[in-house]
């Protein structure tokens, strides 16, 4: 019986991103990982190893369980490839640690899907972190958190000779930095139930990354912790190192000028999207700007942003854009529209008693009859 289809969620982007910034280090890291896999690992993975090769004997002695995975040890021996020997030689082996392997393991991957998943995460999250830290500090952070991830793996892997390969520890470090430094950012997730259902949603970055830590790594690690070389320890170690580094960066103010410049550029991009009527772009950018950047936007434009956020199913963000704006009260028409929008959002959130004062203010004003009528209709529905 075929397995039931599962809903899958895949991150496909984030917002906001620093406009015009070229994340050279992130791109070079992706190029290095992809190039090493395509030029060194992949060609070897299709070449059968010679059973008489001394390296095969050393490989089997280190991992004798490979010959017991099936009824025919001879067939298992024949399946060993040059790629297996290459990864074994240069991956990090907890029972036989080598200093150089701490570095080489970060650039090796066991297969195309392993590589693709890691590079997707690096591409999505790396540019913001690189922009905030600066290029050289970002590279050092990538290497340092990757080292921490490998050491985290080593701490719980016991005397296993199964090699750790992959950039997952370093990329988890980038995720930890992102989690701390960009709390308001949002991630675009593609939800899929093939072949029937595909939908893109915007989700809090912290929610996505928190789920990655807890459900993808911490829970499986606690349930199946056997010291068998499972790389959850690398993910958790890298993420923890990145989060701690992010706290230090945040408290010290390191790179804050670059962060502010990026926020100002995002504010400019928001205004350009408002002018062009690009609602999707406005919604992506609006929920992520800091309070100072929001306050700098004129009242009429802030009201338009709030309306589009409300229509996009982000009522809390819409109300956030309306609060603390004395300029809205200085223009009777804008004030009435803001009151109507606030009342409508509160009703949709299930707070009719809180909505009624706002709706009453909108219904009493005389400057915009359409706004007054809309407020009166909602009040009549509420019996107010």
Question: What is the secondary structure topology, with strand pairs?
Answer:
Elements: E1 8-15, H1 24-45, H2 54-62, H3 73-78, H4 82-90, H5 99-104, H6 112-133, H7 135-156, H8 168-181, E2 186-193, E3 197-204, H9 205-223, H10 232-252, H11 256-276, H12 279-286, H13 291-295, H14 299-311, H15 315-322, H16 326-330, H17 332-348, H18 352-364, H19 369-382
Antiparallel strand pairs: 1-2, 2-3
Helix pairs in contact: 1-4, 1-6, 6-7, 6-8, 7-8, 7-10, 8-9, 8-10, 9-10, 11-12, 14-15, 14-17, 15-17, 17-18, 17-19, 18-19
CATH topology of the largest domain: Rhomboid-like fold
Question: What best-fitting shape do the alpha-carbon axes yield?
Answer: elongated
List the total number of helices. Answer: 19
CATH class of the largest domain: Mainly Alpha
Return the string of H and E elements.
Answer: EHHHHHHHHEEHHHHHHHHHHH
Question: Alpha-carbon distance between the termini?
Answer: 58 Å
Helix content bin:
55-70%
Mean pLDDT: 84
What would CATH call the homologous superfamily of the largest domain?
Rhomboid-like
Tally of separate domains: 2
Throw out a few tags for this protein.
Serine Threonine Protein Phosphatase 5, Tetratricopeptide repeat, 384 residues, 2 domains, mainly alpha, Rhomboid-like fold
Task: Give a written overview of the molecule.
The protein has 384 residues and is mainly α. It folds into 2 domains: 213 residues, Rhomboid-like fold, CATH 1.20.1540; 126 residues, Tetratricopeptide repeat domain (Serine Threonine Protein Phosphatase 5, Tetratricopeptide repeat, Alpha Horseshoe). It is built from 19 helices and 3 strands. Strands 1-2-3 form a 3-stranded antiparallel beta sheet. The N terminus is likely disordered.
